[in-house]
Design a protein that fits this description.
Length: about 200
């Protein structure tokens, strides 16, 4: 009689262990059930892991969309002075440091799913610079970016490159334009600080 009791008790214990094991396995498999991760986010353990440039509980916030807009501000322009008699006699008065107002920098996005890429367009009194930028340290509070070297200026006579930062309300941009003929034309430095989102 005692052996039947022990066998029944053993069977109950085995069933209990089996139930606990199955319950634990079921919970971990169903942790992501009902969790929707947006913008290519992946669910793990019931929580979304977001791609770079995306945040929020369900990866619902694409940070670059916070920066998408036009920014208006002033541009401080300074020039290096080439060591050239030709420059002194012909161009010195043309290249004087000054400030231009009402510069417009626009940031736009395409339909791509690379959440750290934007298009930058800068209009400075008729000159337009357009390029693709890559956002770095891209979070809800802002991002930095690099402007890759490209030809620009009248007749594509300058190699233009630089860097900047942007957040939901303002943008700053620093560009350096290096001329093809440095003995005749100075290096030009453009500084746009605290351009305001329009």
């Amino acid at each position: 009689m005692k052996s039947i009791k022990y066998m029944a008790l053993g069977a109950i214990l085995v069933l209990g262990v089996f139930y606990v094991a199955m319950s634990t396995t079921s919970c971990s498999k169903d942790a992501c059930k009902g969790v929707t991760c947006l913008n290519q986010g992946m669910c793990s353990g019931g929580q979304c892991t977001c791609d770079s440039g995306v945040g929020g509980l369900n990866c619902e916030t694409v940070y670059r969309l916070l920066y998408k807009n036009s920014y208006l501000g002033n541009d401080v322009i300074t020039y290096s002075r080439p060591d050239s008699a030709v420059f002194d006699s012909l161009y010195y008065s043309v290249y004087s440091n000054h400030t231009d107002d009402s510069n417009v920098v626009a940031l736009t996005v395409g339909s791509d799913t690379t959440y750290n890429v934007m298009q930058l367009s800068w209009k400075d009194h008729g000159n337009i610079l357009q390029t693709t930028i890559k956002l770095s340290n891209n979070t809800s509070t802002g991002s930095t970016f690099t402007v890759p070297a490209m030809m620009g200026g009248p007749g594509d006579t300058f190699s233009v490159s630089g860097n900047g930062s942007v957040n939901a309300t303002s943008l700053s941009l620093n560009l350096t334009a290096i001329p093809r003929h440095p003995k005749l034309t100075p290096v030009i430095y453009y500084t746009l600080s605290n351009c305001t989102k329009q």
